[in-house]
Specification:
190 residues; alpha/beta; seven-stranded mixed β-barrel; 19% helix; 23% strand; membrane; PA_domain; secreted
């Protein structure tokens, strides 16, 4: 796989304290944060809401991992870009099938986690509770809900630059960042 940025993604284990936080997971209504490293025009820190009752927790931190938009974007049929999804975080669009089906498709393709962006591209403030669809076969990878405006802006930047993925760091501990307020997307209400 060729990297358009000239770097390879690295898996970096977090410190023991971070590991404990990630292993225990987040509570209801808590947000997880990730930072886009490249492309730089969307180099911000984004928030995402973990699924309420399915999906796993982040047990490692990823300092550089790809965020790959799935093809098709809703992830409701067989993913056509499996070769670049394996081992990466996958970006999907809400709609067409259940959140569980989307996360299961990404897990079956070898993805490490899934970000499901709201289909309403003007949604810049309302996180949705992702819940199970009643099936017994639940995915074990982390599943997160992303604001529609954020998903739209990420996809638009990648399309405009003809890039197959963004490079991200996930999860990010924003409580240790003094400059956090300056690193938020300008289009998102915080």
């Amino acid at each position: 796989m060729t990297d358009p940025y000239g770097v390879a993604p690295l898996l970096v284990a977090g410190v023991i304290l971070s590991q404990l936080h990630f292993t225990l997971g987040l509570g209801v209504n808590e947000l997880l944060y990730f930072r886009i490293l490249r492309p730089e025009d969307i180099g911000y820190i984004f928030s995402a809401a973990p699924a309420r009752d399915f999906g796993g927790d982040f047990t490692s931190s990823y300092d550089e991992i790809y965020l790959v938009p799935a093809e098709p974007s809703d992830g409701c049929s067989e993913l056509r870009n499996k070769e670049i999804i394996e081992g990466q975080v996958v970006l999907l669009q809400r709609g067409g099938c259940s959140f569980v089906q989307k996360a299961r498709a990404v897990e079956e393709a070898g993805g490490r986690a899934v970000l499901i962006a709201d289909s309403a591209s003007d949604n810049d403030s309302q996180h949705l509770d992702m819940i199970t669809d009643g099936t017994a076969d639940l995915p074990s990878i982390p599943a997160l809900f992303l604001l529609g405006r954020d998903g739209h802006m990420i996809r638009r930047s990648l399309q405009r630059q003809s890039l197959p993925w963004a490079v991200i760091s996930i999860p990010v501990n924003v409580s240790s960042l003094a400059s956090f307020p300056l690193q938020q997307p300008p289009w998102t209400l915080w």
